[in-house]
Amino acid sequence: MSFDVASLRRQFPILSRPINGTALHYLDNGASAQTPQAVLDAVRVYETTARANVLRGVHALAEAATEAYETARADVACFLGVADDEVIFTGGCTAAINLVASSYGSLLKAGDEIVLSELEHHSNIVPWYQLAQRAGLTLRPLPVTDDGRIDVSALPRIVNERTRLISVAHVSNVTGAVVDVAAVVAAARAVGARVMLDGAQRAPHGPLDLPALGVDFYAFAGHKAYGPNGIGVLWGRKELLEAMPPFMGGGSMIGSVTFEAITWAPPPRRFEAGTPPIGPAIGLGAACRWMMGLDWTAVGGHEMGLTQRLMDGLAEVRSARLIGPSGLQGRLPVVSFVLDDIHPHDTAQILDSFGVAVRAGHHCAQPLMDRFDIMGTTRACIAPYNDASDIDALLAGVHETVRRFA
Amino acid sequence: MSDALYHDRIVALAKSRAGAGKLAAPTASARRDNPLCGDRVTMDVRLDDHGRMAELAHQVRGCALCQAAAVALTSRAQGRPTGDIAALRAEIEAVLNGTAAGEGDFAAFAPVRQYRARHDCVTLPFEALQAALDGR
Predict the structure, then answer these.
(1) Does the interface ipTM go beyond 0.95?
(2) Contact call for residues A391 and A313 (beta carbons, < 8 A)
(3) What CATH number does residue A369 fall under?
(4) B3 band by pLDDT with thresholds 50, 70 and 90
(5) What region, left, alpha or beta, does residue A60 occupy, with left being phi > 0 and alpha being psi -120 to 50 degrees?
C-alpha cells in the first residue's frame, strides 16, 4: 500500500499556512520539524486540565500532571527501546550533551582522550572542548571522507588505551550520512571506552533500538522530532547514570538535605533538578507515540524517494554540487548542496520567495565546512509530511537562483 | 520578492568585485566575522599624509549583499577623511532602517530593510573598516 502523504499532511495545521503568497514548502526540518495536532492537543490538555507541578503535590491536578509526565517518560523509553528510569528529560539535545560532558566528564582525569569527528555539530564539540580545557583532556577528531561520512577506517589510528569516550553524530546534520555505529562501538569496546551518539537528526526518522546499537549514551531534541521546543532527552545506561554525580543542584534531585550532608536521588531524578519542562515533556511523549504509530517502512520509502527526486533534480543543475553521499545507502533525507559562486544565504533567500524554507550557512559545523573548504551549504531536510511539490518548488527556486546570479 | 532584494544594481555591484583584493602596504587592516552565518570580511586601507583614505581593498567571503556592500563602501570611502566612516555607517543604517534614501549606491540597499536577518550582511564591511581604522 502506498504511503498517504496527503492524509498525513492534514495532521499538521501549519502546512496550510501560505508563505509569500504561495504554498509553504517546509524543508527546514533539520532545524525544527513541524508539530502534528496530536502533540498540540497533548500539550493543550495538560495546560487546560492538569497544569500543576509534578512529583510534589498531593492534590488532584498534581497527581494528573505527574501521571502525564511519567507517561511521557515511558513513551520516550518505548520509542528508544530502553527502561523508563534511564530516560532523563533535559532542556534539549545540547543540554543533554552538556550533562554528560559535565557529569560523566567529571569522572575523567588529565591525559584521558575523547574522540569526536570532523562533522560534529558544535553542540557535540564545544562541551567537550570546555571539558578538555578544564580537566586537561585531549580531543581527537575522526576524519571525514570525501562523501561526507565519518571515516571509521581511521578508528584504529585515533582510538587508543587513553580513549574514554567516543561521541559522534548518529546522522550528520549536514551530509545526512549515518555513522557505522557497529564499527564505533567495536573500537570503543576494544579499549574499554564508552560511546555517545548525538541522535538529533536520527530520532525524527522513527523508533530506535538502543540496546541493539550497543551504545552507552544517546541524546536527541524534541523540537526536531515533531515535539515542542525546550525539551530534549538523554538516555544513559543505568549503571553509568548511577555512578555519575548530579549536573545541576536544586529541588527534586536529592535524597535528603542537611547543612552537613546531602544525598542524591537515583537517576533519572538526580539529573532533573528543579521543576522540569512539564508541558514540553508531555508533548514529546505524544510525538514519540505519534511516530510509533507510523509505518516507518512506508515512511522511509517515501522520504528516500523524495531524496532521490531532489538529488536527481540537483544533478541537472550544472553549478550544483552535493556535500554528502551521492546515493541513498547509509544516509537519511538530509541533503546539502552548494552552487558555484553563489552564497547559500542568497540561495535560501530566493527559495523563500518560492515558499521554500531551507537552512543555509555553516549549520553549526564549522570544522566540516573547513574540511570541504566551503563557507556553507544550502540544506533541505525531508520529513514524512513533505511531498513531491516541496521538492519541485525547491528545484524551481534553485534554477531561478542560478538564473539571477548568472 | 527576491527580485526586489536581488535587483540588478545589487547583483551588478556584487559581481563587479570592484576594490576586491589586498593592498600591498596597508596602513591598517582588520577582519570581521559574522558568527551566525560565517560571513567574513577583511578590509585594507592606506592613509595618505593628510589622514585621508587614499586606497581601500576588501576581501569578502560572504553573500551577495555583503559583497555589494563592500564594493559600495570602498567606492564611497575612497579619498575621504577617516572621520567620515562614522557618517557612512550611519547613512547605511538609516537606509536599512528606512529613515533615509541613501546617496549613490547606498540607495540600492533599501530593499534589505524588510529582511532584518540580512542587515548584518550589509554592515559587516563597515564594521571591518571601522575596526581597521581603530586599530582593533
Answers:
(1) no
(2) yes
(3) 3.90.1150.10
(4) low
(5) alpha
Pairs of residues, one from chain A and one from chain B, whose beta carbons lie less than 8 Å apart: 51
Domain that holds residue A364: 5-31+295-404
Q: Is A392 on the interface with B (CB under 8 A)?
A: no
A364 among known catalytic residues: yes
C-alpha cell at B74: 570602498
The whole-number average pLDDT for the span A230-242 is 98
Q: What are phi and psi of B22, to 5 degrees?
A: -120, 155
Q: Do A366 and B1 touch (CB under 8 A)?
A: no
Domain range list for chain B: 2-134
pLDDT in tens, A169-209: 999 999 999 999 999 999 999 999 999 999 999 999 999 99
Determine what percent of chain A is predicted with pLDDT higher than 70.
Answer: 100
Burial (0-12, 13-18, 19+ Cβ within 10 Å), B124: buried
Decide if A36 is inside a domain: no
> What DSSP character marks residue A266?
P
CATH architecture for the domain at B2-134: Alpha-Beta Complex (3.90)
Q: What angle do CA A319, A322, A324 make, to 5 degrees?
A: 165
Give B65's contacts in chain A (Cβ within 8 Å). 346
Residues of B in contact with A362 (CB under 8 A): 37-38
Instruction: Give the one of B3, B15, B62 whose C-beta lies nearest to A343's C-beta.
Output: B62
**Residue whose C-alpha cell reads 571539558 in the numeric block:** A131
What mean pLDDT is reported for chain A? 97
State how many domains chain A has: 2
**Chain A (355-374) residues lying within 8 Å, Cβ to Cβ, of chain B:** 360-362, 366, 369
Select from A244, A271, A292 the last residue of a domain. A292
* pLDDT range class, residue B2, cuts 50, 70, 90: low
B65 touches chain A (CB under 8 A): yes
Average pLDDT for A52-64: 93
Query: Which among A343, A353, A366 is the nearest to B64, CB-wise?
Result: A343
pLDDT of residue A142: 98
Q: Which of A78, A93, A364, A381 is an active site residue?
A: A364
Three-state DSSP state, B64: helix
**Residue A262 shares a structural domain with residue A309:** no
User: How many CB atoms are located within 10 Å of the residue A133 CB?
Assistant: 10
Residue A112, pLDDT > 90, answer yes
Rounded Cα gap, residues A25 and A106, in angstroms: 45
Contact with chain A for residue B63, Cβ under 8 A: yes
Whole-prediction pTM value? Answer: 0.94
Q: Which residues of chain A neighbour B38 with C-beta distances below 8 Å?
A: 361-362, 366, 369, 375-376
A326-342: per-residue pLDDT in tens? 999 999 999 999 999 99
